């Protein structure tokens, strides 16, 4: 459950348009945050 959840959150971070919880995604995926939103 935990790994699947993290995987889903990572996908959401890569595609923030489809992520209902924008701030949560940035916190859950700092690498994506740096790459996509720099």
From TrEMBL:
Q: What is the protein's given name?
A: LITAF domain-containing protein
